[in-house]
DNA sequence: GCCAACGTTGGC
DNA sequence: GCCAACGTTGGC
């Protein structure tokens, strides 16, 4: 079964986990997502899908690199760990509530494509792009092939 | 640190 | 099932 490659935007706070951190570890389980919509997007991911890595809640928010999805979704272990910030007492092993995928470093962009710059291209990106949609706080969201191409051409 | 936007929770 | 209260996100 091969599905057509799809594309995603994944946000991370660089203080917590940056593109440099991903480069260092190579592959990271994308744990801690506790939003159903974001979770559902991860559950629909396929190995090989492209990821735009976005730095949020920092001095210069923007797209800083690319990664690839390197596993399909599986249960996020941190939900079962009482000591974790991400612990969810309502989740059970029999019926895990939260999933994650593994994300593997691909490359850092030569420069940050800042949120400010992305906004200047809002019209070209069209509707339904998370970063230019007002009020969108989803940490995982879909990107079209056209948006992917357009954004990386800005680099 | 402020605050708008939005998701979740829980009383009724 | 409504909705007020509360918590979180994330730009600024």
Can you describe what's shown?
- It is globular, with a radius of gyration of 15 Å.
- The mean pLDDT is 94.
- The strands form 2 sheets. A 6-stranded mixed sheet has the order 2-7-4-3-1-8. A two-stranded antiparallel ribbon has the order 5-6.
- It starts with 6 loop residues before the first strand and ends with a helix.
- The protein has helices spanning 19-25, 36-43, 115-120, 122-125, 145-154, and strands at 7-12, 27-29, 50-55, 62-69, 74-75, 99-100, 102-114, 140-143.
- The chain is an alpha+beta fold and 155 residues long.
- The protein binds a DNA duplex (12 and 12 nucleotides) through residues 11, 13, 35-37, 56-58, 61, 115, 134-137, 139.
Secondary-structure element string: EHEHEEEEEHHEH
Strands of the largest sheet, in order across it? 2-7-4-3-1-8
Largest sheet: 6 strands, mixed
What helical percentage do the residues reach?
10-25%
What's the rounded overall pLDDT mean?
A: 94
In percent terms, what proportion of residues is strand?
25-35%
N- and C-termini, Cα separation = 33 Å
Provide a concise account of the structure shown.
With 155 residues, the protein is an alpha+beta fold. The chain has helices spanning 19-25, 36-43, 115-120, 122-125, 145-154; strands at 7-12, 27-29, 50-55, 62-69, 74-75, 99-100, 102-114, 140-143. The protein is globular, with a radius of gyration of 15 Å.
């Amino acid at each position: 079964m091969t599905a057509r490659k799809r594309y995603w935007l994944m946000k991370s706070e660089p203080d917590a986990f940056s593109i440099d951190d991903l480069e260092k570890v190579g592959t990271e389980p994308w744990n801690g997502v506790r939003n159903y919509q974001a979770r559902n997007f991860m559950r629909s991911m396929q190995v090989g899908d492209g990821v735009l890595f976005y730095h949020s809640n920092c001095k210069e928010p923007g797209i800083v690199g690319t990664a690839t999805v390197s596993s399909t979704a599986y249960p996020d272990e941190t939900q079962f760990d009482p000591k974790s910030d991400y612990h969810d007492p309502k989740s059970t092993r029999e019926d895990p509530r939260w999933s994650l995928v593994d994300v593997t470093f691909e490359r850092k962009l030569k420069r940050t494509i800042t949120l400010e710059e992305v906004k200047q291209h809002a019209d070209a990106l069209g509707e339904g792009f998370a970063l230019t949609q007002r009020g969108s706080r989803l940490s995982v969201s879909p990107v079209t092939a056209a948006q992917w191409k357009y954004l990386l051409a800005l680099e």
